[in-house]
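Review this today:
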Amino acid sequence: MNVCFVTSECVPYVKTGGLADVAGALPAALSRLDPDIRVKMFLPLYDRIPVFDHGFVHADDLGELSVTLGDDVVPYHVWYGHLPGSDVEVYLVDCPRFFHRGTLYTDHADEARRFVLLQRAAFDIMQRYAWSPDIVHANDWQTALMPAMLRHAYGWDDRFRHTRSVLSIHNLAYQGLTDPHYTWEAGLPAERALPGGAYHHDGAFSCLRAGLVEADQITTVSPTYAAEIQGPHLGCRLDGVLSARRDVLTGILNGVDTAHWNPRTDVHLAARYDAADLSGKAICRTALLEEFSLSAPPDVPVVGIVSRLAEQKGFDLLVPDLEEVLRTRDVRFIALGSGAPWLEGFFRGLAALFPDKVGLFVGYDEGLSHRIEAGADAFLMPSHYEPCGLNQMYSMLYGTLPVVHHTGGLADTVTDLHEHPGRGTGFSFHDARPEVVTATLHRMLDTFQEKDIWRAAMRRAMQQDFSWDRAAASYVQVYRRASN
């Protein structure tokens, strides 16, 4: 099976969110799963990607290529390499005019055009190498036109006659709303982007809606999120389309990179440990507290946060009551993140009010994120919505019990310790209101004193299977359904 995987970001090259983690792990897992699965990935060459550091070479056999976008002929080059530790071939589309802008995504008027170029270039490169994929796998709005282009712009080419498409939704809130003019540049029927057309949404041409309408199969990053987006609350006004296509919509929980996130081997930690021997976790906890000039006896829990500080992540729910929790309970909070200035200010204020209870690092530090996962006893993730989420899975693998909102991937991964005493791996709340979050925090703090119950939950959490091998097998099933 040949798979063309098209994405706007990928670890270890560039990352802004969970899409990059998926792109960096799923294709490699597919190759491991079955040697007959051959994956070629297409990605923009942003100015922040050091091509030589990652072993890329210029595709001299292709030379300078060009894509015609309307009346404009846009030249580009191609760089070639492999996803580290895998047989996955990676093709970087090198067009400085479109991709050397200092950031991956912009608010420029030609934002959609940048990714039309990427998608047209992917088809162009496949044609020049006479490569026929069985599956084109697109991801989010930036590459969601691939299914539509496969059907309407490249349907004439026999090498794509048997190619089928899969579109993965990583976050439905981002829809690629743009001018209907771009249908012309993408080679799509213009009338579909006009009012009443299949691609028209909220007064614009929606790249994501086009993909949802045209893809042979649709996936999203957790089973619960797949159900949630078919309703008005989280459907982002696309719930009607998704509900109509429910028969081809599948929720597949993301995996995690267990080579990178593994307390037995993690190079960022003060000590290593596993479910059979948890002694190293106590050392990690002490080291983390010392890093923030804090201290706490063993019966005082350490709560970790690693997140973008955004309202979607639910931190606004902490504002009314967290100060009172810190005043009345013996607990330590250690947070790593950045984002909305008012939320950064909220956490800075807590750190100033409770210098002996709150540690804060504004920004991002990869090593510190590992040390928080290992050194904390509990991990707070109160997201209003969370398509999948990864940190709750990292936490469980490190024996750190998550406190989460029962939504999306959080609902699919965390089993509440009191609702299911023999299976619990954390704490969850169903109603996203401040008083409910506070009550759940108090419940967690009380349970921490029941050491036998807590330790048993830690071991259950650490034994969960969140590997990409499991997820890759589910994607192969989707590919086969698309091909039938």
